[in-house]
Amino acid sequence: MWILYAFFSAFFAGITSILAKCGIKKTDSTLATAIRTIVVLIFSWLMVYIVGSFDQIYTMEFKTFLFLILSGLCTGASWLCYFKALQIGDINKVVPIDKSSTILTIILAFLLLHESVTWTKMVGILFIGAGTFLMIEKKQISNVETKGNQWIFYALGAAVFASLTSILGKIGISGIESNLGTAIRTSVVLLMSWIMVFVTKKQSEIHKVSKKEWIFIVLSGLATGASWLCYYKALQDGLASVVVPIDKLSILITILFSYFVFHEKLSKKALLGLCLIVSGTLSMLI
């Protein structure tokens, strides 16, 4: 059953990237992240009350609480980097780098959670690494001094923090109901996001957000909430080294929608890279 939750997580995560891209065309990415986190938070706590797990907060161990906080901080950092990268870069280049967090997650799962690394996972890591490299155009990585190429640094930051999020989240939800764990860490993300808004002095721009972008930001938040609930339920019941690769299959949905919505086309080299990433991801499920 947890595998099904992982696939649902991938679907909603794929939609999230497209909706978010639509919502940050003119709106500052940090402000948009803070706004959508409110939606995710409401969604998360609503699920806590629906499943009736709120009382577990009183019996939560300090270790569980600590790792949920750390996971939330990493999630906030990953989001801020990811949506900044989406705002200034193409989806079909940003997403592959973000999804490469699978490699680091598997390594950390082996070192910290003692999950086994089979030869199929090793092949998957090689395929994902090679595919990610192919999906980044050479001209995009040869001139990193221009503003137009800063997206790559934000995308790499998003990948690193996303990996840490998965590992810390796996440890944090080991002793409590997954929806409650998601709600707690989302609260941390919300606090972190709004602190960043005020630090960068973007709060005055909230009245400039158009009605259309408000709609896409809110829809993006709802999709994220659904993805998270499915993801952490799968993570709680299954193996992190399997759940994370399935979740990363959202790249197929994202790339497909980016073609129809934003008319972002893949070169033959990038298409080969996408095939390698998907093949590598699927090999980890064997």
Explain what you see.
This protein has 286 residues and is mainly α. Helix content is 78%, strand content 0%. It has one domain (2-283).
User: What gap, in angstroms, lies between the N and C termini?
Assistant: 17 Å
Largest sheet composition: none
How big a fraction of the residues is strand? under 5%
What portion of residues is helical?
Answer: over 70%
Please trace the helix and strand order, writing H or E for each element: HHHHHHHHHHHHH
Counting DSSP E segments of at least 2 residues, the number of strands comes to 0
Count of helix runs: 13
The structure class reads mainly alpha
Q: What is the number of domains? A: 1
**pLDDT under 50 segments (min length 5)?**
139-146
Instruction: Average the pLDDT over all residues and give the rounded result.
Output: 86
Radius of gyration: 18 Å
Q: What is the overall silhouette? A: globular
Layout of helices and strands:
Blueprint: H1 2-23, H2 29-51, H3 62-88, H4 91-99, H5 101-112, H6 119-135, H7 138-141, H8 151-172, H9 178-199, H10 211-237, H11 240-247, H12 250-262, H13 268-283
Family: Belongs to the EamA transporter family.
Protein name: EamA family transporter
Organism: Floccifex porci
